[in-house]
Design a protein that fits this description.
The protein has 314 residues and is mainly beta. The chain has one domain: Trypsin-like serine proteases (Thrombin, subunit H, Beta Barrel). It has 4 helices and 21 strands. The strands form 5 sheets. Strands 7-8-9-16-15-12 form a 6-stranded antiparallel beta barrel. Strands 6, 18, 19, 20 and 21 form a 5-stranded antiparallel sheet that branches. The N terminus and C terminus are likely disordered.
Length: 314
């Protein structure tokens, strides 16, 4: 089943990892196309062609639930904030996309391990234009070696920082010479479709000036679960709402808070664009509890297809 890598992006960004970015080896890139080049690259046809980034090889998790903490490292936290710039949606046009009536699956009441969860489209649709929903969005990116166009979910974590999965930013392989960053990153907060088929960016599309992922992901061979399958990107300031002043993305969308080493026990809200629901064209939300310690610095939620990965962007 295809899926987009969900980011645990709630009013509380709860993370299991004890290793903060500042404390662990990282891989960073400031090299890439300019903002103008990224916008020129993403034609409507390329945007419409983007597909979910599939995960690599999947390791086996224990079938026996364990509620022990995933890590006993320090807790680090930061508060979220609502947008400071107000105004109606800009609705920057992206592309036209129709939805097939047979393209969806119906969410189950429980996971494969019998744990309960609730998944729903964010309703009403207009709610995605308000905080906290509008700080989550869809990330478009390009693989320069395969020439593929891909999508993931991502969230605004600080006034200029976007958080997503490491596998949505960096191709991790066992051999160092085969590892590389993706490029042409374009983040669309509150991505939505206006009937009948127009996909739009309500609060503009944003390019990135800097990308960083953890050494644990970069050198981990691309297999999951991974102790630090997480990445951060710095969004480039731009003019989005009325006026000519450059704006930070967090000022327009608001941003989420975060806290490390807090996933067990915890109620978790996951926001994103899973491709098996509404073809990834609508914002979906899953409410669940942390179900067990997945090992390797990870925690499983009641939704068995979504692993809450460690992250500590302090």
């Amino acid at each position: 089943m295809k899926r987009i890598g969900l980011v645990v992006s709630a009013l509380l960004f709860a993370c299991s990892g004890g290793q903060a970015f500042a404390q662990s080896a990282t891989v960073a890139s400031a090299v890439g196309p300019t903002a103008a080049q990224v916008r020129a690259f993403w034609t409507p046809a390329r945007l419409a062609s983007a597909v979910p980034m599939e995960l690599g090889s999947k390791g086996q998790l224990s079938a026996t639930p364990s509620f022990a903490a995933a890590n006993n490292g320090p807790q680090v936290s930061g508060a979220g904030a609502a947008p400071t710039i107000t105004g109606g949606p800009v609705n920057e046009f992206l592309y036209n996309a129709g939805v097939s009536a047979n393209s969806e699956v119906s969410p189950s009441a429980t996971s494969s391990t019998g744990a309960f969860f609730t998944t729903s489209r964010v309703f009403p649709d207009s709610a995605t234009l308000s905080y906290p929903w509008r700080a989550a969005g869809k990330l478009f990116f390009h693989d320069p070696r395969t020439n593929g166009n891909f999508i993931c979910s991502a969230s605004v974590l600080r006034p200029r920082l976007i958080v997503t999965a490491g596998h949505c930013v960096y191709q991790a392989k066992p051999a160092s010479g085969t590892r590389y960053f993706f490029n042409n990153f374009l983040f669309v907060p509150a991505f939505r479709q206006i009937p009948p088929a127009a996909s739009v960016a309500p609060y503009c599309s944003w390019t990135t000036a800097y990308r960083i992922t953890t050494g644990a992901w970069a050198s981990g061979g691309g297999s999951v679960p991974n102790a630090q399958d997480v990445a951060l990107m710095e969004a480039t300031d731009r003019t989005c709402t009325a006026g000519s002043t450059l704006q930070k993305i967090g000022s327009v969308t608001g941003f989420y808070g975060y806290r490390t080493n807090s996933l067990i026990p915890q109620s978790i809200t996951q926001i994103g664009y899973p491709a098996n629901l509404d073809q990834g064209l609508r914002m979906e939300v899953t409410w669940a509890q942390s179900f067990d310690n997945g090992g390797n610095n990870t925690v499983r939620t009641a939704r068995s297809s979504a692993v809450a990965r460690a992250a500590a962007p302090g």
